[in-house]
Amino acid sequence: MAKSEDPDSKGGACMFLVDLPDPAIQITGVPNTIDSSMPGSHAEITIYNLRVPADQMLGDAGEGFKYAQIRLSPARLSHCMRWLGGCMRAQEIATDYANRRMAFGKTLIDHEGVGFMLAENMIDIKQCELMIDWCAGVLDTGSLGTVESSMTKVAVSEALMRIADKCVQVMGGLGVTDKTIVETMFREVRAFRIYDGPTEVHKWSLAKKLRRDWKAGQ
Ligand SMILES: Cc1cc2nc3c(=O)[nH]c(=O)nc-3n(C[C@H](O)[C@H](O)[C@H](O)COP(=O)(O)OP(=O)(O)OC[C@H]3O[C@@H](n4cnc5c(N)ncnc54)[C@H](O)[C@@H]3O)c2cc1C
After folding, report:
1. Is a pLDDT exceeding 50 seen at residue 101?
2. Residues 18, 76 within the same domain
3. Which residues lie closer than 8 Å to 11 by C-beta, 6 or more apart?
4. Cα(30)–Cα(94) distance, integer angstroms
5. Residues 49 and 156 grouped into a single domain
6. pLDDT of residue 216
7. Residue 112 maps to which CATH number?
8. Whole-number Å distance between alpha carbons of 137 and 117
9. Rounded Cα distance, 19 and 117, in Å
């Protein structure tokens, strides 16, 4: 998406497709990241002096930002759903471990410190499900759900981090090895607190909405 320089456009951004390879678009780096679930990783690209034929513009000039917003909420929600599924599996693995492992005369889950961690995960998982369901319901009405998906993305990504961390902790040394997907989930969800907008930026944006609403009510 790019800001349009067409004097006839409405002055907003434009969305377009570009046939690759194009010398104006260069992959300038493929950084290693904490997560590993994205096929092909995440490339850094440089765009310089790109010319786009008019027939490769998607939709109308000046509407690009609006088009981008349409995919924003479903994208946030699908990240929430995918990584919640992964954390639910991690919780199953940690629960199984805690029910089998004997330590200091009883199974781990019977040690209150361990049982409480798994119970807290159970609560976090249910809260994630409910928020995702609520936000999906808002999107089903045809709304952009910008505020709702922002709230859901923050709540779920923060909860998933807590869940994955506790699963690692419950499993002790095994939890930090690659013998189960618990370690993978811990790494995957850490990045989710930054991808699709860091928690703090979403909160900042929500606070701005509170400010706007308060002003409108005066
Ligand atoms: C490999 C990779 C893939 C990514 N994929 C996506 C993607 O697909 N979609 C997507 O949307 N994002 C994605 N991101 C995230 C995005 O590219 C940015 O990293 C993210 O928006 C944060 O911006 P920044 O890195 O410039 O951090 P900075 O702007 O430097 O911010 C650093 C930190 O400062 C704090 N901060 C910043 N602004 C504010 C504020 N207004 N109020 C309070 N605190 C603030 C936050 O804690 C933030 O984490 C990806 C990032 C990486 C590294």
Report:
1. yes
2. no
3. 4, 62
4. 33
5. no
6. 97
7. 1.20.140.10
8. 30
9. 51
Structural domain that includes position 17: 2-58
pLDDT at residue 81 greater than cutoff 90: yes
Query: Is residue 89 within 8 Å of 163, Cβ to Cβ?
Result: no
Give CA separation, 182 vs 35, 103, 127, 172, 197, in Å. 13, 21, 20, 11, 24
Q: Which of 18-27, 109-118, 165-174 has the lowest mean pLDDT?
A: 18-27
By residue count, the chain amounts to 218
Closest ligand 1 atom to Cα of 42 = 1
* Among protein residues, the one whose CA lies closest to atom 5 of ligand 1: 195
Q: Which of 28, 36, 41, 201 is the pocket-test mutation for ligand 1 (most atoms within 8 Å of CB)?
A: 201
- Rounded to whole angstroms, the Cα distance separating 17 from 40 reads 20
Residue 68, pLDDT above cutoff 90 = no
